[in-house]
Write a structure and sequence with these properties.
- The protein has one helix and ten strands, in the order E-E-E-E-E-E-E-E-E-E-H.
- By secondary structure, the chain is mainly beta.
- About 5% of the residues lie in helices and about 35% in strands.
- The strands form two sheets. Strands 3, 4, 5, 6, 7, 8, 9 and 10 form an eight-stranded antiparallel β-sheet that branches.
């Protein structure tokens, strides 16, 4: 049942918010997209152990675990490409990073040019995106351009909130290649390029 309460011990109203607590502990928000991520195909670049890329994509109940993490390699930049099992509509990106100086300073989400300043701290930060700009997403690339002071960047958890639109279609794309195409066999091309007839 929704109710208002204080998170963090502050007494001002800016820290009160309304959300639901009727889920069992560890299940997480109803709109967590963990089960919709294609973890086998997560790619991490400029990290010390690229094969560990999927390890920061954790279930909600493991979001605070610091045993598994990704750390940048040659410098403090890091790129992670995360594909989904189908189209999703993103509402927010969840990040847990640290220690303080290894927290990324910014996060850019591609193909859009939006970026977010990442707060220092060991809590899971929730960074909201405009759902209208992320309404039919099949993969997300996160770019962390720099840390907040250290030579490397470290991430413990990456997650997403949003809604799942549908499975990818499992049907193959059939392409026909012609060694000697006849332009007359393609009426749309013939109409668009009449100068090529002859």
């Amino acid at each position: 049942m929704p109710h208002d309460h204080d998170h963090g011990g502050c007494n001002d109203d800016s820290h009160h918010h309304d959300h639901q607590h009727d889920l069992p502990e560890g299940v997480g928000p109803r709109d967590n997209l963990y089960s919709r991520i294609d973890r086998d195909n997560v790619i991490a670049l400029n990290v010390q152990a690229p094969a560990k890329g999927p390890e920061v994509i954790k279930p909600w109940d493991q979001r605070l675990d610091e045993d598994k993490y990704l750390e940048s390699d040659a410098d403090d930049q890091m790129i992670i490409r995360i594909p989904f099992a189908g189209a999703v509509k993103l509402r927010a990106v969840l990040i847990k990073a640290g220690p303080i100086d290894q927290t990324p300073a910014k996060l850019s989400i591609f193909t859009n040019l939006d970026h977010f300043d990442v707060a220092q701290g060991r809590d899971v930060g929730e960074y909201h995106v405009m759902p209208a700009k992320f309404s039919n997403v099949t993969s997300v690339t996160l770019f962390f351009p720099e840390s907040q002071g250290a030579d490397t960047t470290r991430l413990y958890y990456v997650g997403f909130l949003g809604s799942f639109s549908g499975e990818r279609k499992g049907q193959p794309i059939i392409t026909v290649y012609e060694s000697r195409p006849n332009i007359a066999d393609h009426p749309k091309i013939t109409e668009a390029l009449p100068s090529m007839q002859g």
